[in-house]
Amino acid sequence: MIKVAVDAMGxxxxxxxxxxxxxxxVSDRRDIQVLLVGKEDVVSQELKGYSYPKDQIQVIxxxxxxxxxxxxxxxxxxxxxxxxxxxxxxxxxxxxxxxVSAGSSGAILVGGQVIVGRLKGVERxxxxxxxxxxxxxxxxxxxGANVDARPSHLVQFAxxxxxxxxxxxxxxxxxxGIVNIGAEEEKGxxxxxxxxxxxxxxxxxHFTGSxxxxxxxxxxxxxxxxxxxxxxxxxxxxxxVGSTLISMVKKGMMVTLRxxxxxxxxxxxxxxxxxxxxxxxxGGAPLLGLKxxxxxxxxxxxxxxxxxxxxxxxxxxxxxxxxxIKESLDAEEQDIEQ
Amino acid sequence: MIKVAVDAMGxxxxxxxxxxxxxxxVSDRRDIQVLLVGKEDVVSQELKGYSYPKDQIQVIxxxxxxxxxxxxxxxxxxxxxxxxxxxxxxxxxxxxxxxVSAGSSGAILVGGQVIVGRLKGVERxxxxxxxxxxxxxxxxxxxGANVDARPSHLVQFAxxxxxxxxxxxxxxxxxxGIVNIGAEEEKGxxxxxxxxxxxxxxxxxHFTGSxxxxxxxxxxxxxxxxxxxxxxxxxxxxxxVGSTLISMVKKGMMVTLRxxxxxxxxxxxxxxxxxxxxxxxxGGAPLLGLKxxxxxxxxxxxxxxxxxxxxxxxxxxxxxxxxxIKESLDAEEQDIEQ
Lengths: 338, 338
Known about the structure:
Two copies of one chain form a homodimer.
Chain A: E1 2-7, H1 16-28, E2 32-38, H2 40-47, E3 57-61, H3 72-78, H4 83-92, E4 98-101, H5 105-116, E5 128-132, E6 137-141, H6 151-169, E7 175-180, H7 190-201, E8 206-212, E9 223-225, H8 228-252, H9 257-275, E10 285-286, E11 293-296, H10 303-318, H11 321-337
Parallel strand pairs in A: 1-2, 1-4, 2-3, 4-11, 6-9, 7-8, 7-9
Antiparallel strand pairs in A: 5-6, 10-11
Helix pairs in contact in A: 1-10, 3-5, 4-5, 6-7, 6-11
């Protein structure tokens, strides 16, 4: 049985969609117990609308809510009874294996580091976001945790990301690429130029060199390593261009009578294709390198994404990702010492 | 009469598409003279296949070609008779008003600075790329010229970009946004945090604050300012996600008989819509802040993009963009002196 704490109060669609997602997860899987953390009356009231295996959902009271606009360090320090702080403490104390939240990224990042704590040797825990590609899915990290990173951080991202893609997603020898503005080794900014040889020298990853942003949607690498500013720009632009184009395609099909009839005919097939390009099916972005598992979903996550994020925690736990990260970093340390 | 030097040897589709584009430009406009720079026999041979107003195209011989892979500084120094160096010299000596090339970005950048030269006061000439949005077009700069820029460079990009959008594209009081990973002023990396107040204090631009990458395709700002690494990632991802989605939509419509019939019906309307999202219709990216006009098109530019880039030079020249940039930077200098 995997215990997943879920932030019932976090995100644009909380608590409704969050609770719906939790109910869906426990209805699908007998091996998950969800701890719904939030305002007790609100959560219990919402739960009444569903039928689900009662032994698989427990409500954990938390009277406060951290808003997205709040400065995260202050919020984590002051709002001791917020859903995020209470849930993080459950993970820290071993009462939960994982935590899923659609709430403030900043607070999740700070809480993850301060309350749950980093694994020994991890310098900066990155957000690893799964992004859809033409051929499957890639892991983009750091997708927004720490800006202005150093080369050693990027090397750790590559190691942790490789472990994640191999054992959670099931891609053997995942190809690692560093985001760059040209294919040649001598291209790039100062950070990339300094990181490139370090990745090349890293023995436990399958480094395939630079990846230009154009190649990302084509599935040019399985693990895409970059600094968090660049990563966040990539993640958000990916979603922005995708949604803009899809809405333009929809509008474009509605301009003439002829095209409207055509739209009715292509709709089912098109829907199936575009589903492949929908980030929410892959669940949220784990904050890698913590002593427990913390997963951030999109702020506007609907029930489906919450459900998928909860289920994703099972594989993470079963595959002992954190143990594997620890081993990898220990081996790295020994390498340096020798 | 505007004289535009065109690199007949640059790009993946040279000389065929380049020469075709030049012929199209002079066939459409009586006020343009094209100087086709490249291997004389090759260019003359290719030209024989077209009928066009003979007085509007002149062949300027250049025996060498700079390849994309060549280190740019060396190439510009050594290949004195390359199409890029010969054409840049035409601009420098006033024999041409502008230069259009689909060749090596690096060589165009180095040649632009070393041969054509920067306008007095310009610290770093950025590539300004026009990108399509839901509502029209935005200027992204720096889209790839100089990585690791300083705040003062970004402020100059904002000033030059505003002048370009106002006078070449015709948007009055263009909104200037700085690419950021959150909407609030305190978000961002060190560069953005330092640049933000400087842009806010800049009196001759209409600064509207941070723009998240998600908002770029929705037309969230007219002038999008960022450092060249980020800018190049945005530009290439834009194209990558766009082309991937369009190819997925096309494939998606071909899976069932029903959808195939629908595809035939929606095709014309859809084509019209997606044309709006095609970057090549806007022509190439000017290298702003030089003593002459230098425009870089996509490496894989077809005739249409070459034609549009040549025609774009007329507006640039007529609107005296360089004179306006000089005035703006002079005013800035006086501001600082006071």
